[in-house]
Amino acid sequence: MHGLEREWGKKVQFFHVDFRSPPGKELGRRFHIEHLPALLLLDGAGQVQAKLGMGLHLREEIETRLARLIEGRKIENRE
After folding, report:
1. Cβ(53)–Cβ(63) under 8 Å?
2. How far apart are the first and last CA of the chain?
3. In whole angstroms, what is the distance from residue 34 CA to residue 2 CA?
4. How far is CA 23 from CA 7, 36, 58, in A?
5. How far is the C-alpha of 8 from the C-alpha of 68, rounded, in Å?
6. What is the chain's Cα-based Rg?
7. Which of 7, 21, 3, 6 is nearest to 67 (CA)?
8. Does the pLDDT at position 5 exceed 80?
9. Smallest Cα–Cα separation from 43: which of 59, 65, 19, 21?
10. Which residue among 19, 47, 50, 75 is the one 20 to 30 A from 29 at the CA level?
């Protein structure tokens, strides 16, 4: 995903979920995923801090949100 895993992989865990699989469907229900692709940013406690819905998001936008999450700052959530 935009090379983010390579650059941020030491600070952030990335998970790819197949929402067609039974476990993926359950996660989709748990996190209220209505459209794909979807990108969720969770804090260390597993709480959703941002949900980026349909459409492409600029790498800079995602990186800004990741940096804010790592710093413990509030993330602006726009779907």
Report:
1. no
2. 18
3. 23
4. 28, 16, 29
5. 13
6. 12
7. 7
8. yes
9. 65
10. 75
Show the DSSP H helices in 1-79 as ranges.
4-8, 22-30, 59-71
Cα–Cα distance for residue pair 47/3, rounded to 1 Å: 24
Strand partners, 52: 39
Closest CA to 77 of 53, 59, 45: 53
In this prediction the pTM is 0.77
DSSP, collapsed to helix, strand or coil, labels residue 36 as coil
Question: Per-residue pLDDT tens for 10-23?
Answer: 999 999 999 999 99
DSSP annotation of 17 reads -
